[in-house]
Every structure is written in C-alpha cells, then in structure tokens.
C-alpha cells in the first residue's frame, strides 16, 4: 500500500434482515481486513449459538445490548483499505426509530449503499433511506440488490427492482445511482465477480467503491474559511505573529488573494498560508491551515474569511430542513442554542412550515408536530447573523445543529435551504 | 482541477485531527492530553504541535502511571516534554495503592489496568480538567467503534453508550454541566496502519520498544509477556526465554503482549502491519478478560 490512496466515506442503510451486516462482514473478509483473532472470536460465537458455518454478520456486533438483542443501536464506524483507497464505513441501523443515526452517518458520506432484499423488492424503508441520502446530499448512491441467490439469480427480479427504484428516485435530488445484483452471503459481486449472473455486465461493489469519482465532492468554487481560533505565540521569535487557524470549507485560497472578513466587512490580502511544514501557495478543502493577513484587523472565532465578490448569505432568518433527534419534541416558539461552522448563537423556532412524511414525501401542513425522527421545514430566527450557504452548495456552511440549553443534548440537525 | 485538489488519505486524516484539536482548544477551558508513551499518544502530541504551531500546545500532558513501565517509555516521555516545552502531570497508581484509594489485584494475571480508572478520574478532578484527549481509535476494539470524537462523561466520569450525542458534519457539541467532562478522540478515524504510515512519513522519533530487540519473555494464553522487573510471577510450568520481539502497543508491562519480530525500521513495521493476521490488541490481556471487557471499562470511565 502506498501513501497516495484517497479516503472514501460511505454509509450503509438497510432494513432489518436484508443482510447489511453480512454484506459489511463480506467486504471486510474478502478484502482481507479481518484478523485471525477476530475471525476466531466470531467462529466461536457462531458455534456457541449453534449456527451453521461462520456468521460474518457477527463482525459488526458492538455493544452488549446489541449482541443480546441481535440489533444495531448506534452508528458504528469500520475501516478497510485496498491499494487504491482507504474506506470509512458508517454502519447505521435501519429501523425507523434510528433515522437520526442514518442522518448522522450520511452527513459526511461520499457514497450511500442502500440494501434491497431481492425477494422483497423496494419497500417503505428503501424509499426512506434513498430520501435521506438525497436530503443529506450524498453525491453517489449504490443500490445493492442482495440475496440474489434466493431468487435463483434471476435477471428479471433485478430489472424489476431497478425500474421500481428509478420510478421514485427521479423525484429525488440524486445525480449518480448504480445498481448491483449480489449475494453477500455467498460473496457474489461483492469483491469477487459472480459466476452465477453472466447477464450482469456492471462492476462488483468493491470495484465501484474503488472507482467512483469523488474529486468534485467538495466545493472548490466559493471561498469560505470559518476561523476556529487565533494563534498568538507570545514568544520573542514570533512577536507579531497573528494567525487565523481553521479548515477550508470551500474554494481555493491563494497567497495574495484579496479577502473580506465577515461579519465586519473589512478587507485585506492573504499575506501567508502557514502550516507547521512551511508556507503554502494555496489551500483548499478539507485542509487545516493558518491564514495571516496583511492588515491588522480584529478577527475572532466564528468570523469567516471569504472573497470580496463571492459572499455567503448573512442574516438572522434561516429556512432549514430539520431532522429531530430528541425524545422531547420540537417546541413551537422554543429557544435553542444553534451551532453553525465555528459560530454559536441562540435561536427561536418562528414557524414550522410543514412536516414531511418521509415515506410518501407528502408535506403535511395540518399536523405539524415534529417528534423524534421526524423531518420538517422550519423557519428560525437567530440572535446573531449567521454566514450561511444553501446546503446544496456547501455541506459545511449549509449545516447547523440545535442544542437544548437545559440538557445540552444535540436535539436536531438542519440543512439550510 | 479536481485531481490537483485531492488530499491523500493520510493528509485528510491529519487535517481532520488538527480540526478536532483546535475545536478542543476553542471550546474548553482546561484540556489535558492523556499521554501514555504509546504510539497513539505520540501521534496525538505530534498533531497538536502542528495544529498550534508556532505557539506551544495549549494542553497539559497527563500520564496515568501504573508504576509498571518500560524504562524506555519513561525516558522517551521526559525527552518529549522537554522538547515541546509542555507541562507534565503524573497520576500515580502506586500512590493510590499506598494511600488505600484503590486495592491491588492478586494472583497470576493480576494487573493494575483496572486501577487506572480511579486514578485517572481523580487526576482529572484534581487538575480541574474539563476535557481529556485520548488516543483511542475506532478500529481498535468493538466498543470503540461506536465512540464519538467528543464523548460526553457525566459527573461520575461514566460513558453512556446508548445515549450518545449525534455527531454530524464537523459540528462538535462540547456543552456540559458543571462537574461533567468530555473525552475527546482526535484520531478516531485512523487505523493502526495509518498511524505507522504517517509516523514514517513525518519522521517522528519513537521509543525503541517498537522496534525488534532481544527480551526475556514467557508464553501465556497465546501471548508473549515481558518478564522485565519481575512484575509477572512465573509459574513452575512456564519457561522464560530470550526472543527477538517488539511491542505493537505500549502500556503497562503486565498487560502489554510483545510479538516475535525482526522489524527494525518503520518500513519493516509497515510491511509487518500490512501482513499482520492478528489485531494489535490481540496482545492485550486486559481486553481478553471477557467479551465486553472494553465496553465495561469504558462505561466506568476508562480511557
């Protein structure tokens, strides 16, 4: 393996019993990412439970309660690598009550795998998973039509599911969808090409994951640099050093660029893009760097450095699609802390426009109570202006979370419209 | 355009960790970095130095010392603290035993591993640290696969895995009540191989224990344990022998298994790790006590 591999994050979603854990186990096992002691441990557990053969799904079991109940409760992260790419899997449970976990796993993913049981076809949960993937703007979808062995590797079954899926996915905001017939249990089309489905001319799952184009998943156009912290060494060698540390959220910053600092509106020029390893000529997402400006301006955490002629929205009224995560429902006119990039403020729920039925995509404007795992369109009023972009344009500057000020729990995630 | 603006996986992991470290400095009053002398905490210190350059790191280094250390690890620690000009605080398990705060385990497989939790929690309380940076990685162990970057701990230092805060995009909610604290895991997404590849790429100096050397060891429960310092009682049917070994993790002598190896450079180690058929914690006696050993300890406030 070289140091030149790219990082790809993907999320997996499926309903109960559609073989998601087996699929992940198969990917890890066939890509030789399973260690002997892990394999021995699951062999022993399989034998103890009286199962036939080694149950690869056990590789993804985590917490005690999950093993006892045979379910997944929380997002689990798994890792494997091939010579081409390093993969981070956000393995999320598929039950309706775990929509919040799916949303969490989806928030950083480049690719979403959606599992469909070939015998069941597209079900309500499939639609929900596809919708969440599109809501969270995951750039690539791979529909894994699993358990093909149980329908005799029949092409017609595959085609019917594919057409059914496309029938509703054209209404979603997803650019790139692949369909792969497979058997995770037997390993067909996961890592190894199936010898049972000659009619399928496409790629295996691993090949697709290794080759999907992720180079344009970041926004390289609109320059956004939220300031995290100010670096002041207070040492003789760096007496006048004043650096603005942060991670580039969008665009390409170059030394000598004219920039504007928001919300103050002062302008200056990038004097230096600094790192521990020396100066850089340019910085782009998702690099963590330190910017130094020509002029002495008062800049602190929560400010944003942008280009003069390309600025984010700057206001106190925010339209968002909100996913509710907490047992205590959204309180109309309630007040919450709001976190956006490196800025914190408070906000009030001004209006719930509608609650979305995520199975039918129906907008309910009558019954607008937003409970745990619900999604709705909401108008917020913030105590301080936030510098936002539409989520479609930038997943970093277009996202917020709400925090309950009494419990400090993260109660909702929102995407700016 | 897109191909030029693409970080490789190590640089992307580095950038993510630096972002998290800077968030900790910005969101907390008094963070400590848990330093064990192991490669993961060495990596964390290296990343922290990069994150705040040219300023000094804004974290106190906190070492929970079981008193059962490899001397090389202590020497390394002291030299590092000197080099980066950081403050070091030691939480001593020996002292906690002497004062009766904790009681030592008895028997052949006795370790001080479980005693560390109480000492760690006391050191955090004494130092009024509101965040503790740990080098835990999600690929290490099944309970760790569910850990957040920002992991909330109640006033007893406990972890509640079923009630974790959802963590989305790069928005980290570090809000807490008085007396509560956070455990922060900036290198959550690194694998063992990533760590070694990066340490090699960055030429980070490491304790000699990680490289193959001759050492007296004994076989027990499929592991090789170092007999240094007489900390592990040798049973009559066990044989001590001298082998070429190296550590894949460094912890307390009584729980850190060593591995037969001839890897004498970082390149050798990377080759060995890419071919390895056992997880690095496969040599950790502390994880083998039960199927949920790590989860149980984490709930109680372990690293």
Automatic annotation (TrEMBL), chain A:
The keyword Nucleotidyltransferase applies. Keywords: ATP-binding, GTP-binding, Nucleotide-binding, Nucleotidyltransferase, Transferase. NCBIfam families: CysN, PRK05124.1, small_GTP. PANTHER family: TRANSLATION FACTOR (PTHR23115). The keyword ATP-binding applies. GO terms for molecular function: ATP binding; GTP binding; GTPase activity; sulfate adenylyltransferase (ATP) activity. Its EC number is 2.7.7.4. InterPro entries: CysN_GTP-bd (IPR041757), CysN_II (IPR044138), CysN_NoDQ_III (IPR044139), G_TR_CS (IPR031157), GTP-eEF1A_C (IPR054696), P-loop_NTPase (IPR027417), Small_GTP-bd (IPR005225), SO4_adenylTrfase_lsu (IPR011779). One of its GO terms (biological process) is sulfur compound metabolic process. Coiled coil: none annotated. SUPFAM superfamilies: EF-Tu/eEF-1alpha/eIF2-gamma C-terminal domain, P-loop containing nucleoside triphosphate hydrolases, Translation proteins. Residues 5-217 form the Tr-type G domain. It comes from Neolewinella lacunae. Transmembrane segments: none annotated. It holds the Pfam family GTP-eEF1A_C. This is sulfate adenylyltransferase. PROSITE patterns: G_TR_1 (PS00301), G_TR_2 (PS51722).
Automatic annotation (TrEMBL), chain B:
Keywords: ATP-binding, Nucleotide-binding, Nucleotidyltransferase, Transferase. SUPFAM superfamilies: Adenine nucleotide alpha hydrolases-like (SSF52402). Residues 278-303 are annotated as: Disordered. Belongs to the PAPS reductase family. CysD subfamily. Residues 31-257 form the Phosphoadenosine phosphosulphate reductase domain. It comes from the Bacteria. It holds the Pfam family PAPS_reduct. The keyword ATP-binding applies. InterPro entries: PAPS_reduct_dom (IPR002500), Rossmann-like_a/b/a_fold (IPR014729), SO4_adenylTrfase_ssu (IPR011784), Sulfate_adenylyltrnsfr_sub2 (IPR050128). The keyword Amino-acid biosynthesis does not apply. Its EC number is 2.7.7.4. GO terms for biological process: sulfate assimilation. One of its GO terms (molecular function) is ATP binding. This is Sulfate adenylyltransferase subunit 2. It comes from Neolewinella lacunae. Signal peptide: none annotated. PANTHER family: SULFATE ADENYLYLTRANSFERASE SUBUNIT 2.
